[in-house]
Design goal:
It comes from Methanolobus sediminis. Belongs to the TiaS family. Keywords: ATP-binding, Cytoplasm, Ligase, Nucleotide-binding, tRNA processing. One of its GO terms (biological process) is tRNA wobble cytosine modification. Residues 361-401 form the TiaS C-terminal zinc ribbon domain. By secondary structure, this protein is α+β, with helices and mostly antiparallel strands. The protein folds into four domains: 6-161, Alpha-Beta Plaits (2-Layer Sandwich), CATH 3.30.70; 168-255, Glycinamide Ribonucleotide Synthetase, Chain A, domain 4 (Alpha-Beta Complex); 263-353 and 399-431, OB fold (Dihydrolipoamide Acetyltransferase, E2P); 356-397. Helix content is 21%, strand content 30%. It contains eight helices and 26 strands. The chain has helices at 23-34, 72-86, 106-122, 127-136, 149-161, 188-198, 232-239, 319-324; strands at 6-13, 38-40, 45-48, 61-69, 97-102, 140-143, 168-175, 202-203, 206-207, 212-213, 223-229, 247-255, 263-265, 276-284, 289-290, 296-301, 307-312, 331-339, 342-352, 356-360, 372-373, 380-381, 388-389, 393-397, 404-407, 430-431. The strands form five sheets. Strands 1, 2, 3, 4, 5, 6, 7, 8, 11 and 12 form a ten-stranded mixed sheet that branches. Strands 14-16-17-19-18 form a five-stranded mixed β-barrel. Strands 21-22-23 form a three-stranded antiparallel sheet, with no helix packed on it. Helix 3 crosses helix 5, helix 4 packs across helix 5 and helix 6 runs antiparallel to helix 7. The longest helix is centred in the N-terminal third of the chain and has 17 residues, at 106-122. The chain is elongated, with a radius of gyration of 27 Å. It starts with 5 loop residues before the first strand and ends with a strand.
Length: 434
């Protein structure tokens, strides 16, 4: 065995299931275990990939570690054995992948892995492409079962090797194993205090508009809570206010959460594909309607006359009230993912408001009383005087909404959606949804 040290990037994905485990927990555990015989070089990375992928478990996250060690084979053996023992391999949708990139390969693979990472956040990538890329680049990798996790593992390696992407931070606290699958014990008032003390340097800890805690998950995974913010010191400060059950370990991740990295700008609806996310400009075609289940939907028309439905689904709560105030002719830009030919709106930019009118039957020019309808399409008639008119009375009314940016509340925020508080140098007002 050589005593020469080497740097290694380790990417891991798809070890969890909807019922339990968490790939970020496995990464935190490995970081702590590997630190006994390897040096941890930088913050671990947590990257969220395309949020529309149907194969995802919960948040479609992959992770990466950057270490320096004197025994690469020992590291590979330890990591693969830990994945084999802890991943939810009995679940048909859990298909882990792990990739190891040696520093001697960094220069040769950085560009392709970075491109792969950026595509995986926006696009749909097949398993075979990931396997082919790993083989072509001569990377050490292990695919469990069908190996779908290789997509995320390669992406996380690409993110670690490429510093040129917008990032935020998340502080994740993990539960002691004995209490997994039991109700979490976190003092809610302490989370509201953490928000008061650190917002806007941290965000999405609580939802003030709906009086809800949003940083504590409800599934059976090991995460106790997660604090998101602009840098490591801010999320650590917020966590210092939290009162909770005992914490087994914590980990601060650098992440692409809250960056809008998944969004693709398009100029027309004809460019849109299913399972992708977009920024799309258009005009409200008709008044929004609220359907069964509380979902509010309106049709958006682009410059070419093509139309697509845009939806503020029930979980977006008070955001739907903004959408319901739109009228035909309003100019808007929508931000969101497309599934079943519908845009799931995450944010909306209202750039122009159409004039609104109160339309009433016209007054009779002779007696001053309001005319009555003369029948469908036949205008109006005064029964007393016999006068008629085809033009209703139109009075301009003030709109109960302003041009600007509006977003869904924290309780409905997607991992990748950029918070309005992170928007800078905008030409329109910003109305945070908290």
């Amino acid at each position: 065995m050589s005593s020469e040290k080497t740097k290694i990037v380790i990417g891991i994905d798809d070890t969890d299931s909807r019922e339990g485990m968490c790939t970020t927990y496995l990464c935190a555990l490995l970081r702590d275990e590997l630190s006994s015989f390897a040096k941890i070089i930088s913050d671990p990375i947590l990257v969220r990939l395309n949020p529309t992928i149907p194969y995802k478990t919960r948040g479609n996250a992959s992770v990466a570690l950057f270490i320096e060690c004197g025994d690469k084979e020992k590291v590979i053996r330890h990591v693969t054995e830990k994945i084999a023992s802890m991943a939810c391999l009995d679940n048909e949708n859990t298909n882990p992948g792990v990739v190891f990139v040696d520093e001697g390969q960094f220069d040769a693979v950085k560009s392709e892995l970075s491109s792969f990472f950026r595509r995986a956040v926006k696009d749909v990538i097949m398993i075979d492409e990931a396997k082919e890329l790993a083989s072509e680049l001569d990377l050490e990798f292990h695919a469990f079962k069908n190996g779908r996790g290789l997509i995320g593992a390669l992406s996380a390696c690409g993110a670690m090797l490429d510093p040129e992407w917008d990032h935020t931070y998340e502080y994740l606290a993990y539960r002691e194993k004995e209490v997994w699958d039991t109700r979490r014990k976190v003092d809610e008032s302490s989370l509201f205090e953490a928000d008061r003390q650190t917002y806007p340097d941290t965000w999405d800890t609580v939802d003030l508009a709906n009086n809800m805690v949003v940083c504590v998950p409800h599934s059976g995974d090991p995460v106790l809570y997660g604090i998101r913010g602009k840098d490591a010191s801010s999320v650590e400060k917020a966590a210092s206010f939290v009162v909770s059950e005992p914490v087994e370990r914590v980990c601060v991740y650098r992440t692409n959460q809250g960056t809008d990295m998944h969004l693709i700008s398009v100029s027309s609806i004809s460019e849109i594909e299913e399972m992708h996310s977009y920024i799309l400009e258009g005009e409200v075609l008709s008044e929004p309607i609220t359907i069964r289940g509380g979902h509010t939907i309106f049709p958006l028309k682009d410059a070419a006359g093509d139309v697509i439905d845009c939806a503020a689904f029930e979980p977006t709560k008070n955001f739907r009230e903004i959408i319901r105030k739109l009228i035909p002719g309003d100019k808007v830009v929508v931000y969101g993912s497309v599934t079943e030919n519908t845009v799931n709106v995450e944010k909306i930019k209202i750039t122009g408001l159409a004039k609104a009118y109160d339309i009433r039957n016209p007054p009779c020019p002779s007696c001053g009383k309001r005319m009555k309808s003369a029948g469908s399409g036949q205008g109006y008639r005064c029964k007393k005087c016999g006068t008629s008119s085809v033009i209703p009375e139109r009075t301009a009314i003030e709109r109960d909404i302003l041009p600007g940016f509006y977003e869904v509340p924290p309780c409905a925020r997607r991992h990748l959606a950029k918070q309005l508080l992170r928007f800078e140098n905008e030409d329109l007002p910003v109305f945070p949804g908290r």
